[in-house]
Design a protein that fits this description.
Elements (H helix, E strand, L loop, with lengths): L20 E2 L22 E4 L6 H14 L6 E6 L5 H14 L3 E7 L2 H10 L3 E5 L8 E8 L3 E2 L6 H14 L1 E2 L8 E3 L3 H11 L8 E6 L5 H8 L10 E6 L21 H10 L3 E5 L6 E4 L5 E2 L1 H18 L6 E5 L5 H8 L3 E5 L3 H11 L3 E3 L5 E3 L5 E2 L1 H13 L5 H7 L4 E2 L3 E4 L3 H11 L5 E4 L4 E5 L4 E7 L5 E8 L2 H15 L2
Parallel strand pairs: 3-4, 3-5, 4-9, 10-11, 10-12, 15-16, 15-17
Antiparallel strand pairs: 1-8, 2-6, 5-6, 6-7, 12-13, 13-14, 17-18, 18-19, 20-25, 21-25, 22-23, 23-24, 24-25
């Protein structure tokens, strides 16, 4: 379906009538007070279906979304992932939004980056129902302003929560003067065409690619973008793993950050003699990469690989000093490579709302995180795992060597990975480390947690307290394995006391 074509129809009149809509209490207890703080997080909404997220709650959130963002008379886009509750929740959100006068376009099954594409290309606000990599009993809402601008607790989410609670506790959503229409729109082909315009893969050497969708939304987007379901065939043989959309996740959790969830992909890459393996999370906004030996390529290496391509492309278009964003936990190889290639590296805190904000402020062409979130200026500063995967396929396909060799260029240092220590006095643990390293030639900064950097360049490590769990998180990197292990073990012995 092209950009201009769209299917508009009003659903049968089984939705909300244009009168105040009574919302029954969650329990038979008439004095029930709604408090949505259990499901409203810093960047999105996430809760257990039937408990902290229900159709009734979602309907009120849809109404509040329209009111807080002043969307009466405007278009709101609503989609969802393959979780069993997503269709019901999409309809409930649409009903709430239409009651408050917004015209809703239901996008049906979409990945999270498809929502960002739709909000960006159509310049409309939207929401998608997903709990990303969380287990099957969860669902949630990721919301976006027009132009794919993120909504967080600092940019409207708290106000949406407060107004939704008000509607729920009052027992009704007041109707706008004119009820909005609810129509249907398919954006999958437009999304696939747009991504293919950004990275031309038609000239790649033939590649055998194993993709583990984890029964998540990449099972829908991969055939559309990398396969020939909607567009001409690329020089790739796609070997699918778990492409069946199934929100009960029957094979493994759709969380490739956990090494156990990569094992099937690693085995399949070896078995098929594939050139590369790709693993997506449940809502397909993150992508992890496996080389031909079945070994993971770190997200820092992917950040460097994509940064190099985006710097070159920006320079070819006349941009003299393209900016690349990286969070403080990515390998220091990233800023070194960026500077080497004539770009400007900007370091930021962890977290997608920070990255997106800095991307916009700095006019950055690309941003990467150690957690495999990759952000693109050409994608409205939003993150998309699929576009990152396409860049890696292009980098691999334009040269003859295997991915293991290519990846090694971008991973000159040895990393510990993230190590969690469960302790109550996190601040005290950090102070013990600070005191122990005090006499050494170390620089400490506190941008996000505490980062200790050896001034001779031999190592750095970061200690960050979790905001939501009793964990202190350690990430360490060094010029060789012996140094990394020595620093890691020393820090952990101090932290764990």
């Amino acid at each position: 379906m092209g950009h201009g074509s769209q299917s508009r129809r009003q659903f049968p009149s089984t939705g909300i009538p244009a009168v105040p809509r009574k919302i029954g209490p969650v329990t038979s207890e008439q004095t029930k007070t709604f408090d949505l703080s259990a499901s409203f997080k810093a960047y999105d909404v996430r809760g257990i279906v039937g408990d902290s997220i229900t159709a009734e709650i979602v309907e009120a959130v849809g109404a509040a979304f329209v009111d807080i963002l002043q969307l009466e008379g405007q278009t709101v886009l609503v989609g969802g992932d393959m979780r069993p509750s997503s269709p019901e929740f999409s309809k409930a959100f649409a009903d709430g939004a239409a009651t408050r006068g917004a015209n809703v376009q239901l996008l049906d099954l979409i990945s999270t980056d498809e929502l960002y594409f739709a909000c960006g290309s159509l310049n409309a606000a939207g929401a998608t129902f997903t709990a990303s990599h969380n287990p099957a009993e969860y669902n949630g809402i990721k919301m976006s302003k027009a132009g794919a601008q993120p909504i967080s607790s600092e940019s409207g989410l708290k106000e949406i929560q407060a107004l939704a609670e008000q509607y729920l506790n009052a027992g009704n959503i007041p109707a706008a003067a004119t009820r909005g229409l609810i129509g249907v729109r398919d954006v999958l082909k437009d999304y696939a065409e747009y991504l293919r315009q950004l990275v031309d893969l038609s000239g790649s050497r033939p590649l055998k690619v194993v993709v583990d969708a984890g029964n998540g939304m990449a099972g829908l987007t991969t055939p559309a973008v990398l396969g020939d379901a909607l567009l001409p065939k690329l020089p790739f043989e796609i070997i699918p793993l778990y492409f069946e959309l199934d929100g009960s996740f029957p094979n493994h959790p759709a969380n490739p950050l956990e090494p156990a969830n990569l094992r099937d992909l690693q085995a399949a890459v070896i078995e098929h003699g594939a050139d590369i393996g790709l693993a997506f999370d449940g809502d397909a906004d993150r992508c992890f990469v496996i080389d031909e030996k079945g070994e993971p390529v770190s997200p820092s290496a992917i950040t460097g690989m994509v940064a190099r391509r985006e710097i070159a492309r920006a320079q070819a278009q006349g941009e003299s000093n393209p900016t690349i964003i990286h969070n403080l936990l990515t390998s220091r190889a990233v800023p070194e490579l960026v500077e080497h290639d004539g770009g400007r590296a900007v370091r930021t805190r962890v977290g997608h709302s920070f990255i997106k904000a800095v991307m916009a402020e700095e006019g950055a062409v690309f941003g990467g995180e150690h957690s495999a979130h990759f952000y693109f200026r050409d994608f409205w500063n939003a993150d998309t795992g699929m576009l990152a995967a396409m860049h890696v396929l292009a980098a691999l396909g334009e040269q003859d060597g295997p991915l293991s060799e290519l990846g090694r260029e971008y991973e000159p240092y040895v990393s510990s990975g993230e190590i969690n220590s469960e302790i109550d006095d996190k601040a005290g643990a950090v102070e013990r480390v600070r005191a122990d390293f005090a006499g050494e030639d170390i620089t400490v900064d506190t941008m996000d947690g505490s980062t200790f950097t050896a001034n001779d360049g031999s190592f750095w490590f970061n200690l960050r307290p979790s905001n939501t769990e009793p964990f202190l998180r350690l990430n360490a990197e060094a010029t060789n394995r012996a140094t990394m292990e020595r620093v890691r073990d020393r820090v952990l012995s101090l932290v764990r006391g």
